[in-house]
Design goal:
Order of helices and strands of chain B: HHHHHHH
Shape of chain B: elongated
Structural class of chain A: alpha+beta
Radius of gyration of chain A: 28 Å
CATH architecture of the largest domain in chain B: Orthogonal Bundle
Distance between the termini of chain B: 60 Å
Radius of gyration of chain B: 34 Å
Strand content of chain B: under 5%
Strand content of chain A: 5-15%
Structural class of chain B: mainly alpha
Number of strands of chain B: 0
Largest sheet of chain A: 6 strands, antiparallel
CATH class of the largest domain in chain B: Mainly Alpha
Largest sheet of chain B: none
Number of domains of chain B: 3
Number of domains of chain A: 4
Helix content of chain B: 55-70%
Number of helices of chain A: 20
Number of strands of chain A: 12
Oligomer: heterodimer
Number of helices of chain B: 7
CATH topology of the largest domain in chain B: Helicase, Ruva Protein, domain 3
Distance between the termini of chain A: 69 Å
Chain lengths: 683, 188
Amino acid sequence: MEIVASFSLVLAFILAVYSFAAALTGDWAGKERLLQSSYRATAALWVLVTVAIGFLVYSLLTDDFRIAAVASHSNRALPWFYKVTALWSGQEGSLLFWSWLLATFSVVAVWLNRQKHRAMMPYVVAILMVVQAFFLLLNVFIAPPFELLAMSLNGEMVVRGPLDGNGLNPLLQYPAMAIHPPMLYLGYVGFSVPFAFALATLITKQAGEKWIETTRRWTMVAWLFLSIGIFLGAHWAYAVLGWGGYWGWDPVENASLMPWFTGTAFLHSVMMQEKRGMMKVWNMVLIFSTFFLCIFGTFLTRSGIVSSVHAFAQSPIGPFFVGFLGAGILFSGWLLLERLDYLKSASQLDSMVSRESSFLFNNLLLLAACFSVLWGTLFPVISEAVQDVKISVGAPFFNKVNIPIGLLLLFLTGVGPLFAWRKTSLASLRQNFLLPGIISLIVGGVLFAIGVRDFYPQVSFILCAFVTMTIFMEFFRGSRVIAQKSGVNLLAAAVTLTQRNTRRYGGYIVHFGIVLMFIGFTGTAFNNEKEQEMLPGDKMEIGSYTLQLRELRMSDNPNYSVQHAELELYQGDKSLGILRPERRLYKASRQPTTEVAIRRRVNEDFYLVFSGMADDSNHAVISAHINPLVSWIWIGAFIYVLGTGVTLIPSLSAQRHSAHQGRESHAHKKEVQQQDVLVKTVS
Amino acid sequence: MRIKKKFSNRMSWSRQFPRVCTLYLLAFALGLFPAGSSAQDASSDEVAFRRVSNKLMCQCGCNYMVLSCNHVDCPSATYIRRTIKTSLSEGKSDEVIIAGFVQEYGVRVLPEPPREGFSWLAWIMPFAGLGLGAVAVSYVILLWKRKETPDGQSQSGDAEYADSASRPEPPAQLVEKYRAQIDEEFRK
């Protein structure tokens, strides 16, 4: 069976090369049948990769430890759910998963667009197949997922696996972690489609906005998945890694953030091309950068070029990624320069105070944030190469550099959407910003009065209040008009308002989600932590809480053995409940982990870690954290996802317009038919 | 009258707004608001331990501060934490303790690139990038604002609006001529 799966991958690689060649030859020679064959090859390729990935999942579920990838990343006692997720925990499986997602996206993209964009599609397919062939190449030659284990028996090498596998990395045995990598991969792979359309647009010199219209939803969906992946990763770090935080500026975390920055910049600046025909070259640069940063992210996770707690699989695939990235960047850059004349944009600005200017600054800040993250991530490598000195670039550096940029972005989040296209009058500025300005200052004053004195938290809260007010007022103004006209209540009117322009109001919902997340980020400034060695009955005081260790006990299951600590939390004399942090020892991997206990509230989380046993083996080392406002990050993330979902729904007015157009075209067709009948009758 | 009153209220708000801002900023700068209570309640030893261990990177490869290293029984974090506690109990200052670790591990034990020599680049580049980007964006905005018209005259967007507003209406006889032509086409 493994031979069939391996052969499927080889065949899929050959098909990717064939599809690439057939698409280009078919277009150049004008042979429609060759083109159709190229499109069908993408579907056949999907079937083959599905067979391969299906077999690997089957092998994981049936504990086929003859296969090295299964023996390395799974074990018998692992719950079936985690056996499936072991697919992307290793190098081979994750590359295969990449290939399968890309194959799926390619089939869908071809299926939806082969009739609509006949001139562009051969090149779209060719580009997607180049990416596909690269990943399949890695799977076939560098990281084969179906490599068999062999051992010497009576002097002969025979295929035989161990009795049990090494097991899944314990840190990955967490529900959010099970869906975090697929989400990130969906984001990474999803950007391949807009990239392919953008490149095909340049090659075929199609009308400038066509690829944007076609790929807007692709880009939004890819961006949504990437965002969800980042949120789930942050949640995993918070709930599993046990250091009390959710973002450690680890190189692999950074790798997922960089395409998010450029993707977000693209989603904003693309509006300038749609509305004003501006920034055509820049949008190409952004989508290219986003795609290459996605590949770079995969490279960073898999190559081990930088040390990371997230680098779960490392192998010598680095040079291949560097080669692919280099060739791709060179080709895209050359093509972009070659087609500069064709990408001439409308470049006239009516006023400095306009939506266009705000988008330019928004792009600047997002790109500056991306650059600083990239620079900080790679600086240890650069430093070692240049001066042979190993240095570290940790969270303090990234916070110092990125907090001011983040706050400026937050400010633009409030200001930008309220600027009108072309020109914003002074009266409009006053009308839009007076009330939010006053309220945010009042908020700032109140916070100052209650002791929030640090500069960044103050500014952050003031800006959060300001942006919230601007968003609220936008909804309120529009809803009030609808409510007055149609006699419905304000809430129903707000729903109607959103339905009428889902992109705009969905965007506001996303911005509101980001505001809530900023409130959560700002809470970090007020964190409180304490660590204490405790015997049963001992108490620990932290903030307004008292913690008492009630008991320590052991338990066991087939996957891991557990050491439980049971602590009762008090505020004053009032008991708030029992918290049970754990220390686990996973049997297969012999790896110890901590399982935190969290009491979540909207104002603060009480976060408890059983760090270990003290040297005397009697005292438990308990680490307690009070993390204010963390819940707002997850609430904000939920609203952000909801808002993005809203932007993906067609607006009511657009639906009506297309329905109206449909009716008109139907009427027109009928008229033409009647005329045909008349002409035939007369003749 | 009511409109006038409403308008005058708005005017007064808009006049007052900059004053409120200025007063608020002054109060902020002078620290006139009463101080609140601090959330930190740990003992001074523990505060010192947290302060120092938050200025050192764990050397196990986790990329976290020594204080935050999550690896169970991490030999690096355990050793550094223990050394910090011992050094603090001996009365050593933060700087001396950190210098000791730098001597032992090199500058990689620090969580930030040192502000010296080549490492300065780490700090300069992000802000230089942002500054250069800001200059580039400002230049682009100015360039677009003063976009040359085909006949070579500099024209801003506002001027274009003014121009279109002041452009003379086409002659009435020309309009009539085109209308008649359209009617004729429709009759065919």
